[in-house]
Amino acid sequence: MTAFLGAAGAGMANEAGKRAWETVGGLLARAVGREVPAPVGQAERESVAGLLVAQALRSPEQARVLAAVMSGGGAAAAAAHGVPRSLPASTRFFTDRKGPLALLDREADRKPDGLPKVAVLHGPEGIGTSALAVHWGGREARRFPDGTLYADLRGGSANTAPTAATVLRHFLSRLGVPAEHVPPAVDDRIDLFRSLLAGRRMLVVLDHARSAAQVQPLVTAAPGVFTVIVARRPLTGLDAVTIPVGPLSDKDAKRLLTDLAGRPAMTTARAALPSLLERCAGSPLALRTMAPHLADGSLVGPAAASSPVRAAAEEAYRRLAPDAALVYRLGSLRPWPSLHAGAVAAAADVPEAEAVRVLAELADRQLLESTGDGRYRYRPAVRAHAEEAAVREHGLAGCAAAVARAVDWYLRFAVQADYAALKERWHLGPLYAELGPGPYEDEGAAVAALAAELGNLVEAVLAAEEFGRFDTVCQSVEALWAVQLKAGCHDALLPALRAGARTAERHCRGTRTAGRMHTQLAFALMESRQDEEAERELLAAAEDEARAGHLRGRATAVESLGLLRLRQWRFRSALECFEQADVLLDGIGPADDGAADLPRAHALLQRHRGRALRGLGRFDAARQRLAAAMEFFRDSGERYNTARVLTDLAELHLDTAEPDAALLLVDEAAALLSRENAAVHLSYLAALRDRCRPEAR
Asked: Do residues 236 and 212 touch, judged by C-beta distance below 8 A?
């Protein structure tokens, strides 16, 4: 029973999971005669499981219903057993590293003894630790028939670096878990990830790790899994084999240069070679950057005060044409996770086509690295060099102006994409009326465009907050709503949403904008199972909307609070919230904002009230509310919402021992959803149909 509660709670990322969770809460409340708070954590799940088992032992009917709910599934994620191969391609020219390769072999070959197989490759930037991990993984692929998982943990900064929750969502997707089955809480993602890897032979590579805390949730003790972590230094607090990666010897450095530049160039550059080797100090990245210039005789002497990577960056920078140097400098002024040509063009105040050309040139010169999707990024030491050059050339005011232009570009991009992705919602930011929707093929394309730039959009919000551009912060956060609603990504969005809430609290309390900021953050917190903070944000949103005299926004905040309390099994409090929201909607006049949507808003609240009443065991009142909601959605032609209410009514009929009536509603809902992309809900309906069969009674 405890395991079932864990699976049901983890399944709340989708509609069916929320239904299963709500059903269990109502079942328990009716059985014990009082509301029992929804469990959070293992200890509370065990306590609730004890109550459910005790009631089942006392009542055969309770046991039958509980068994039917448990067998119905709908909450647990059924993962397909795919074979992910996500390791990047290895570098073509790879030299030496026999010692570290042998140590990786030894750890991989170690007999299972209950200890996780973990190795940390560490060394300074540009020394080739990432290349070593990828090379070994490609060479030893036969060891891991169940596949490889790879995650780059770098990000642009600590604020935009992937969190454990983000990486786990990516890994679970690669392992075949549908997006709607990825658990919302990070602890549940960890449990599912480790369960899926338990019987597999896999390699997991975690590149550019910052700390032990960042990678610890991603480490498993599964005997067939080998986790290779790449970091700048040993990670204190992580039990792992540490493998230092040092500079190449002069012999191996010459071999790499020969592979890259060819023997004729090496012969021509013989006189300059000692200086070049000293300058590069055994760094493969520096050697790769210098290799194209071996034969031109213009290499400068060693710069002892610089790291090899920075010295190589300076050498490549001084050879750039003015237009390329400008883009190189001004693209570096924020830790963007990746460089979009449009944003770089705005920062440098050049045409986008020129930015596209220059970015490719900078990658050819090893000053940028390609992310593989048409974007680029700086290595940290190279970005630091470019940023210093920008401050020297443009001054602080010029640099600030360049960042502002990039932030404005991202704001306009986000507004147009958000508008195209969700045209029907009401907007606050003035740019929506000015710009209109962007030229996207459909809503899905607009959401995909936002998702692709998610890290940069978050960084743009943080930059606007740092620069004191508080209107820009709020407009940018509002423009994240479509990607938040339709693509999930709540954990990645939290830094930006928190910035919006901070800005609202400090600079625009008591306004519609403040209400929107708190509400958006609350939704992300709810989906991440951070319920206490979500409740505080919804209460703040309701207060701001009340002070602004915005009934529609206040009703939304109160309704959302009710939905949160449904999930917490606080059915009486949820009902009070829905009734309050209904009263607020009644206060909206014919000419007021939101008047056109009132009938639909009331219908949704009727449905929510029916759900709360069902949890309280007030079945007749619940049936009346749900029937009213179904009548509206049937008449309006909304297939999905009609099917949702039909499902609610079917569950209610099962609660009142009317399986034949429930079966008719289940079949009607399934027929409606057969034309929708609703596989999870259809699966849940199939489980309900099984509960209606005579043998289940």
From this structure: yes
Q: What angle do CA 520, 522, 527 make, to 5 degrees?
A: 100
In a domain, 168, yes or no: yes
| Last-in-domain residue among 348, 378, 404 | 404
Domain with 196 in it:
98-244
| Tens of pLDDT, residues 53-62 | 998 898 888 8
Average pLDDT, whole number, for the chain? Answer: 88
Beta strand 369-370 with 376-377: parallel, antiparallel or unpaired? antiparallel
Buried b (16+ CB within 10 A) or exposed e, 454-484: bbbbbbbbbbbbeeebbebbbbbbbbbbbbb
Please give the Cα distance from 519 to 248 (Å, whole number). Answer: 54
* Long-range contacts formed by 433-438: CB under 8 A, 24+ apart: 438/413
Of the candidates 621, 610, 616, 652, the one whose C-alpha atom is nearest the C-alpha of residue 34 is 616
Gap between the Cα atoms of 190 and 219, Å rounded: 9
Q: For residue 439, which phi and psi values (nearest 5 degrees)?
A: -85, 65
- CA dist., res. 565 & res. 580, Å (int): 14
65 pLDDT tier (thresholds 50, 70, 90): confident
Tell me how crowded residue 66 is: count the other CB atoms within 10 A of its CB: 21
Residue 107 and residue 236 in one domain? yes
Cα 386 from Cα 331, distance rounded (Å): 8
CA-to-CA separations, 266 to 257, 291, 297, in angstroms, rounded: 8, 9, 11
Query: Does 478 reside within a domain?
Result: no
- For residues 589 and 608, the answer to whether their CB atoms sit within 8 Å is no
Q: Residue 695 falls within a domain, yes or no?
A: no
Confidence label for 295 from pLDDT (cuts 50, 70 and 90) = low
Helix (H) or strand (E) holding 312: helix 308-317
Stretch 153-164: mean pLDDT, rounded?
Answer: 81
**End-to-end Cα spacing for the chain:** 21
How many C-beta atoms lie closer than 10 Å to residue 547's C-beta? 15
pTM of the complete model: 0.82
Q: Which is nearest to 648 in space by CA: 673, 676, 685?
A: 685
Cα–Cα–Cα angle for 307, 466, 488, nearest 5°? 95
Judged against a pLDDT cut of 80, whether residue 695 lies above it is answered with: no
Residue 432 tokens, joined: 């929506």
Let me know how many helices (H) and strands (E) the chain has, helices first: 33, 7
Helix (H/G/I), strand (E/B), else coil: 627 = helix
CA distance 529 to 534: 9
Would 328 be classed as within a structural domain? yes
User: Angle, to 10 degrees, between the axis of helix 619-636 and the axis of helix 639-655?
Assistant: 160
Backbone angles phi, psi at 274, to 5 degrees: -60, -40
CATH code for position 351: 1.10.10
Classify the C-alpha dihedral 630-634-637-642 as positive or negative: positive
d(CA 31, CA 48): 12
Q: Give 567-592 pLDDT, tens digit per residue.
A: 999 999 999 999 999 999 999 998 88
Taking the C-alpha atoms of residue 685 and residue 681, their distance in angstroms, rounded to an integer, is 6
H or E segment and range at residue 679: helix 679-692
Radius of gyration of the chain (CA): 29
Look at the chain and report how many structural domains it folds into.
4
Domain termination site, one of 366, 388, 404: 404
Give the mean model confidence (pLDDT) for residues 53-77: 74
Question: Which residues does residue 225 pair with via DSSP β-bridges, in sequence order?
Answer: 202
The model's pLDDT over 503-550, given as tens digits with 9 standing for 90+, comes to: 999 999 999 999 999 999 999 998 888 899 999 999 999 999 999 999
| Distance, CA of 262 to CA of 526 (rounded, Å) | 58
